[in-house]
Amino acid sequence: MTKPLLEIKSLTKHFTSKQGFFSKEKVVRAVDGVNLTVYPGETVSIVGESGCGKSTTGRCILRLIEPTDGEILFEGNDIRKLNEEDLRRTRRDMQLVFQDPFASLNPRKTIGQILEDPLIIHEIGTPQERRRQVEEMIEIVGLSKQHLDRFPHEFSGGQRQRIGIARALILRPKLIIADEPVSALDVSIQAQILNLMQDLQKEFHLTYLFISHDLSVVRHISDRVAVMYLGKVVEVADKRSLYEKPTHPYTQALLSAVPVPNPHVTTQRIILEGDLPSPANPPSGCTFHPRCRHCMEICRTTAPPVRELAPDHFVSCHLEDADTIGSHT
Ligand SMILES: Nc1ncnc2c1ncn2[C@@H]1O[C@H](COP(=O)(O)OP(=O)(O)OP(=O)(O)O)[C@@H](O)[C@H]1O
Ligand SMILES: [Mg+2]
């Protein structure tokens, strides 16, 4: 069996903040016990509403923010236990692509400098070798050598995201965490960037952890999908079973809002009532219960365990646990 590239176990990130000197400390449970496994070469997506903890999960994996608890195993090594030098080396293998490429590209540097920086930081090659790598990479992402002497403001959104991808790829990483990489782009440009990412995945044997709130985009790119709600993964499955047989009422509601390409299929939109509750004050029991149309007594008091419904299809819901409702609506 293939070994996972990345294994996240009970990942937790609680932010603490204090409003005033005498006020009680507020704990925001941004990520609350996330488990996820990613195998080499696949694309796993994390989806969920704004504020459910997707970006925090991604940033914890890269240790851009320190997790509160849990294990993050990259090629079997817990990156929380690595010393400075080993962490630096591991970071070469894991790169981030941001939502807003403009904000993440230094406006005072040329594209050539931006792409060379990671190579300099990791002490790779002579200046000539680095220049060659940079020239090669800019062409791989569909731009040209002439672009290297220009500044980020001289590019369109789609071109900037190509530069963001080139910067992530220049160190030849194994894992790319892409946090809403196409959300800021026009739909036509989104497709180009997604296709580029898929081509690059094949060419460089990349593994993607793809973060998005857009289920149409996720459907296009993923092999497996993890649905997050209020800091927890509530359902994980391969793309086909998730889209054909969504089981958690939250997944069903999210999917019912996605337009279906087949005009003969009519799906009933499930309207989620209320907003995402605050992760500073999560509901008791199953945190989805106040918005769930199947809420039972047990849901108010007890957090549901994770069940494997079918091979590789996991869900955390009392309905499945109690077998109360067999059919999937
Ligand atoms: N530095 C921080 N300090 C305090 N709370 C934070 C911090 N960063 C994030 N949070 C909170 O943690 C929760 C999860 O945030 P996160 O950015 O991970 O969500 P997200 O799923 O990426 O949302 P979006 O789709 O809007 O990007 C939110 O309630 C957010 O307000
Ligand atoms: Mg985010």
Topology record:
Blueprint: E1 6-17, E2 26-38, E3 43-47, H1 54-61, E4 69-74, E5 77-78, H2 84-93, E6 94-97, H3 101-104, H4 111-121, H5 127-140, H6 157-169, E7 175-179, H7 187-204, E8 207-212, H8 215-221, E9 224-229, E10 232-238, H9 239-244, H10 249-256, H11 297-301, E11 307-310, E12 313-315, H12 318-322
Parallel strand pairs: 3-8, 3-9, 6-7, 7-8
Antiparallel strand pairs: 1-2, 1-4, 4-5, 9-10, 10-12, 11-12
Domain ABC transporter: 6-255
Pfam families: ABC_tran, oligo_HPY
Keywords: ATP-binding, Nucleotide-binding, Transport
Task: Describe, in plain words, how this protein is organized in 3D.
With 329 residues, this protein is of the alpha/beta class. Helix 4 crosses helix 5 (127-140). The relative contact order is 0.14. The strands form 2 sheets. An 8-stranded mixed sheet has the order 6-7-8-3-9-10-12-11, sandwiched between helices. A 4-stranded antiparallel sheet has the order 2-1-4-5. It has a single domain, classed as Rossmann fold. It contains 12 helices and 12 strands. Bound molecules: adenosine-5'-triphosphate and magnesium ion. It comes from Brevibacillus centrosporus. Residues 6-255 form the ABC transporter domain.
